[in-house]
Amino acid sequence: MKVCIVEDDLALGRSLQSALQDAGHEVVWVRRLIDARHWLREDSFDALLLDLSLPDGDGLNALRHWRAEGLRLPILVITARDSIEDRLTGLDLGADDYVLKPFITAELLARLRAVARRAGRWSEDAGSNRWTCKDLLLDDARMTLSRKGQQIHLSKTEFALMRTLMRYAERVLTRSELEARALPHSEGQALDVHIFNLRKKIGEGYVRTVRGIGYTLESE
Fold first, then answer.
1. Are 94 and 68 in contact (CB under 8 A)?
2. What domains sit in the chain, N to C, each tagged with a CATH number?
3. Does pTM surpass 0.70?
4. Which of 40, 74, 94, 189 is a plausible cystine mate for 115, CB 3.0–4.6 Å?
């Protein structure tokens, strides 16, 4: 399942991203509504986690706007607003579920799976995707990368980078796309460091730098 998280709190955002990736899901995490709008236009998702109190606007207004535009994506609201009026308003505006902070992460993930399942966006075996590139095999369900049966040990970030590159093997991915999917809100040259480490582990001839744009996977 591919999930967009709209949450401005760094600690919570990182925690949610980590929990979802550990469960085998692909994650794009943004902290502002303007960035959420960009990703919803440019990519496709199976579910959206939406905070209501964001630095550049109110999540309820965004929810109203997206539903008016015809967005049918399952949306789960996560917020500290505990008034019955806010909860009813959120549900009436089209939220599929409404979870109060603080919450238990395992319960939130269960609720997320439930709304995605009801919308036909996820099933129990949906995480069994596998991708290949030359002699490499990436198993998303097991979160492993192997070559001819021998496992290559990757960090969580390296695995997220490799999964993204394999999933979009026909595209040149920009630096901002890779950063949003694998290491959002990192600083400096973190992406270059992780790409360097990934290349050391898988070898040359796989990840190609496209100067001035980003990276792509060499499939031939």
1. no
2. 2-118 (3.40.50.2300), 130-217 (1.10.10.10)
3. no
4. 74
